[in-house]
């Protein structure tokens, strides 16, 4: 039986991965400090409450459980907050991650899947964005992830730690069984906010800018279903079982949707005509972010199942209906 340590496993993407990998028959141990709460998101796996920066706790976890590989989701995730508080972002996303990597090295654990992001690319020089695109992060959050990606190359050379960095574009949607879904506190992501406006948990949605150089003037993003991300992590674990090298893959559907298109889709699926306001641009938003994920399809055999925005919004709506009951 293969045992995987999932850090940040109580979070949005981590919790969906716990469920997915349990269904694939893996043994899972979750480590999460619950700084962003939601212990109840961990389904069918033991939860150790603690910080990935706690070396003594990591020694205990690695000694108690025979860990074969680590999926590291634990980090701070808000672009805007990272600009206000770069210190806490570098301390957590880089410093604490280093403590985890060193514990893995001490305990001979040589396989890591790392949650990276489209934010490492900064403003796109061309689109869709492939893995060769220049890395020019424009905020501390994206920079913290790019620093880790680079130091993983040093750790591979020096300590033989193999990693797969998965650069998610816009994670969205919910568990098709509606047992899990997106919960951030505070919520800053477009799709859950739009659906909260539809359910009445919010009074309105504000569109951040209508003067972008896109067809309808609003930003375009590549929304990728959280269950398809879980499939990619499973495939990345299998990749590490059969390869003696590290790799990095961009994960998106390759189709971009504008904010107005997301709102129209939400109205169509929910049947609710919620209020929409049009505000100024949000700092640091690139106009278009769309992934080229051919490499992940070729090398991992990744085959996303829920590519249509309709599926993503439908699953997210089923989850929102449970939350707002
Ligand atoms: N949500 C997205 O669209 C998106 C896109 C690209 C990349 N990512 C990356 O995916 C990962 C998961 O994102 P998410 O949306 O699920 O975020 P989330 O906030 O829901 O989950 C992160 C979890 O990590 C925990 N955590 C944070 N720091 C910790 C620490 N030092 N020790 C232990 N636990 C800690 C939090 O309590 C939380 O449960 C993050 O690394 C994020 O950067 C997310
Ligand atoms: O109330 C809102 C919230 C968002 N937006 C806009 O919707 C788009 C998408 O925003 P959001 O859902 O916050 O996602 P991003 O800012 O694109 O960032 C997400 O996707 C990135 C990868 O593309 C990851 O790096 C980040 O961690 C993740 O938060 C952006 O143009 C936002 O300005 C609005 O107009 N109104």
Helix and strand succession? EHEEHEHHEHEEHEEEHEEHEEHH
What is the subunit organization of this protein?
single chain
Level of helix content? 40-55%
Number of beta-strand segments: 14
Mean pLDDT: 96
Going by CATH, the architecture of the largest domain would be 3-Layer(aba) Sandwich
> Which structural class fits the helix and strand makeup?
alpha/beta
The CATH superfamily of the largest domain turns out to be NAD(P)-binding Rossmann-like Domain
Rg calc: 19 Å
CATH class of the largest domain: Alpha Beta
Can you count the helices?
10
Molecules bound to protein: nicotinamide-adenine-dinucleotide, uridine-5'-diphosphate-glucose
Catalytic activity: UDP-alpha-D-glucose = UDP-alpha-D-galactose
EC number: 5.1.3.2
Domain NAD-dependent epimerase/dehydratase: 4-252
GO biological process, one term: galactose catabolic process via UDP-galactose, Leloir pathway
Q: How is this structure best summarized?
A:
By secondary structure, the protein is of the alpha/beta class. It folds into 2 domains: 3-172 and 223-251, Rossmann fold (3-Layer(aba) Sandwich), CATH 3.40.50.720; 190-221 and 255-323, UDP-galactose 4-epimerase, domain 1.
